[in-house]
Structures are given as C-alpha cells and as structure tokens.
Amino acid sequence: MNEAIPAGIGAPGAARTILLVDDNPLVLQAYRGALERRGYRVETAMDGVDAMKKAMILKPDLVVLDLAMPKLDGSYVLKFIRSQPDLISVRVILLSDASDANIGRAALAQNPDAAFLKSQCTASLLADKISELLAAADPPAPT
Q: Are 69 and 45 in contact (CB under 8 A)?
C-alpha cells in the first residue's frame, strides 16, 4: 500500500478517498476492488490504532468501519473521528457482524452516517451508499 498522499487529493476533480477498515483481509480485498472500479482511491487499515492514524493523515472523504477489531474496536475509532475538528466532515459507514451488542450500541450512539451487517451488504450496495453520502456532502454546483 502506498503510504504517501498523492498531490491533488481533495482538489476538485480528484478521486474521493475512502478509508476501509477491517481486520479480515478477504473483506478488504473484496470491497477495495469494487470501490476502486467505481473510481475511488481506497486506503486500508486492519486495526483501530492504524485506522485512527490513517484518518488523521489522509483526512478521507469517508470511512467504512468494522466494529470488532484488534487493538481498538470500531466504536472507539468512530468516537475518535467524531471528536476531531479536522475530521468533522468525514462520513462514516459501519460495516460489521459484531456480536457484542454493547459495541454496537456504543457505535450507534456516535451517529454513523449509515450502518450495514456484512452478511446483508454486497459490494455494490456499499458503493451505492458511499456515492449517495458523498453526493449529499458535495456543495451545490454553481449556476
């Protein structure tokens, strides 16, 4: 994975950046491919600590966040994102099969922009929701 941030990220016409966070490499691979085919720049993280570091460096347009992860769970990462002024405009989608109801409740209390169970979310459905959320975040086109 390329750690450097290419020039122009965030500039008009630049690819939108998605931070995809999951501890399962198969999940990362499946969703990453689908999102890249839609023209998104996709960076990945496999645990909560790495997710927080990359969120601060990349300032992605959107984070797709698993809840049950090593080091720090997704609920904590979401709380961190929501507390950072530099990340205030970042959209967050929870994507998890977290079996711990307490983690799920804590994450939902942080007001994610959307939430899906992995077992019910195809790559196409996720990409459609990302497009919807990012379009809603765009300023209106000049007339």
A: no
